[in-house]
Specification:
Helix content is 29%, strand content 32%. Helix 1 packs antiparallel against helix 2 and helix 2 runs antiparallel to helix 3. The longest helix has 22 residues. The chain is globular and about 45 Å long. The relative contact order is 0.18.
């Protein structure tokens, strides 16, 4: 996928540094099949990328948790026929970390039908994402879904 490398970490672009006072930008991007084990691998790669940023443990946890919820939704819901892809993009620009999860699946229906007697653990991922982000936006429809999440951790404001 034309990945840039930072040492042995595929999928990351090393931070771009300029003169004192300039904004530091770091990016991450991966594309993977929308399968549960692949989503877990994307989470691990994102966690590794986040480890290079000056983040506190709580911010890293929130970013990883919300991102995995979005990725898990792709694996569980985006492709009813079981075939599709998830794109994970992350960037740090100044005091903000933005993570975007994109698919080209069926979109999120306005109302999700539930079958009587069917016990699921679903329905809380998007609520959780909203609670742990500073800002989240969802664009969904027949073209797929994009979940964009932004955090402004105190550690990046220094």
């Amino acid at each position: 996928m034309g990945e840039n490398t930072d040492g042995d970490q595929a999928g990351t672009t090393p931070p771009q540094r300029a003169a004192a006072g300039a904004v530091v930008v770091s990016t991450f991007e991966e594309l993977a099949p929308a399968l549960p084990n692949e989503m877990a691998e994307l989470r691990r790669k994102l966690t590794h990328w986040l480890g290079a940023l000056p983040l506190d443990a709580e911010s890293t946890h929130d970013i990883t948790l919300a991102t995995y919820e979005a990725l898990a939704n792709v694996a569980a819901h985006a492709y009813p026929d079981g075939h599709g892809w998830a794109r994970l993009q992350a960037s740090r620009a100044g005091d903000a970390v933005t993570v975007t999860v994109t698919d080209t699946g069926c979109g999120i229906p306005a109302t999700r039908p539930r079958q009587a007697g069917l016990r699921t653990s679903g329905g809380r991922g998007l609520v959780l994402i909203e609670k742990v982000t500073d800002q989240s936006d969802i664009d969904t429809g027949g073209h797929g879904t994009t979940v964009r999440m932004t955090w402004r951790p105190a550690a990046l404001r220094a």
